Each structure stands twice: as structure tokens, then as C-alpha cells.
Amino acid sequence: MDYKLIIVKEKGQLSAELQTADQGRRQAFNIYDVISDYKKIRRTGQGKRGRPKTYFDLQNHVFGCLFGCADFLYDATWMELRYDNVRKSFLFLNEAEPILKESRRQPYKRAEEIWRLARKYEAKLDVNMYRSEENDNSGAISYNIPITKYSEVAQSDHWIEYACQTALDMVVAIMHYYALNGFKMAVCRHCGNNFVTTNYKQLYCGRISLYQNRFSQKRSTPKTCEETVRQTIQFFRNEKNALIRRVARNPDVELWCGAGYEFYNQVISECNTYMDKIKKEPTPENFDKFGQYLLEVNKKKGWKK
Length: 305
Prior knowledge:
The protein is an alpha+beta fold. It folds into 2 domains: 3-197, no CATH class; 225-304. Helix content is 41%, strand content 20%. The protein contains 9 helices and 10 strands. The radius of gyration is 26 Å and the shape is elongated.
């Protein structure tokens, strides 16, 4: 079946949609996360004679429309018929991702390299690119001016249309678009998911964090990874300072000697180590380790001994 993968940039905002050629089926998707989510479809199960078997589950991915139709539910057996094509798409990604990281090359040069790599894997897709123009009378925006040079894409509002047939074609289309617009692949410091950005100074993706701070009595509303990290680090900083104030009540601390003073220094050293860790690697696992440490120290009340 023929598909169109359409990406529109209007006033700097991106939107993306996958649709059948007759527009009978259409589905919007997040252009920033679609490849990261695609890479998670690979599964490993137990095959014959206990050997591991790799398979792909696209049921919950936007590209899964390739393996079913509106008249019946997703059928995993369809996946087997297209296994080789999806496997090729992962091999393509292994070679394409380093191309996006080549910061010294111009975006259009990286896009040309992606396109050459697509031919190596026998991807069969076409692309049409149009620049926006505004109607003088109505102010309506249309996309009728063809873009003939890759270097013009990133600087303009545009309509990019890829004609695709397979999952490989769709993966190529997204990676080609990333390259055209100077996107780079990065890993979120909090959740560990891949995301695309135009600036490596961006450390976090835009996803909603799944982390729940079980050491806080307050239940906050869902927040992005960056907001969650900022809020959680501040929480543990406050908890750490409160613990140190409690430990400092031991009389030995004022005398600068004795077991109480040694315990005080030990707590400060361990807290600082944990704080450095969650600042450099603000993962849910490291947050939980620090929280568990603070909980246990507070329970034991070692400063009273």
C-alpha cells in the first residue's frame, strides 16, 4: 500500500501526519519521538530449542498501520511477512544515527548522505518539498513554491511530503528530515530515552516523566523530565539540609571531637556524594538511592548515640 508521510513547519512549529494515498486513513504523530519509540519495538523472545528470537511489535506505533487495515485488528502474522524490511530499517538506523552527530557537516550535506545510504538499503521513496507563501488579501498560508535546494529547507516554513511503501521508507523519511533541519540524536539524562534536538546543550527530552517521588508526602502533577529533575533535586537538597541540622544537635559537634562529630562528618560526606551523583546523573534510580539513604539515616537516628 502507498502512504504519504507529511511534515509541515508553520511559524516555526512542526506537525506530522501519516496517511494512506487516498487519505482514507490519517494519523498524526510526534515528529520528535517517533524514531525513539520505533527503536523500542524490537523484542527478544524464546525461539526453538530455547534460542532467543528477535521479533518486532509495531502494534502501538504509528507505523503499525502497515500491518493491518481498518476492517480488522492488528495481526502479528503480518509482521512476519515484513520481518526482513523492518530488520533492514534497524540496520539502516545503525548507520544513519552517526551521520546526524557529525557536527562539522552542513545539514544539507548530512541529508544527502542519508539519501545515499537509503539507496544502499534499497529504500524506495520520493520526496516533494514546498515553501510557504501568504496570500496578500486573505492572509491564508499555502505551500506552492517548490524547494529545489536542500539548504533552503531549514530556513523556511515548509511542507515536506514523502511517498512511502514500507517501514524502511518511513524510517528513512524521518531521518532524512532530521538531517535536513539540523536535528541531532541525543539521550535524555533523566529517562534515558532518545530524542532529537538542534542543540546538544539541551539535556532533557520533552516527555512527561514517569518518576514518582515516594519520599515526598506531596503528590505533584505530571511534569516534563527537566521540570521533574529540577523539582526533585531541590526536594532532596532540602531533605539533606534538614538531616544535617538534626545531626548537628549532637554535643560532640560543638566540641569538634568524639563519635558524634565523626558521624556528623560522615553524613555530610555521604550526602555530598549523593548530591553530586543526582546532579550529574539525575535518573529515577539515583533519586531513589538517595531517598532511601536519607530515610534510613533518619530512622536510625545515629546522632543520638
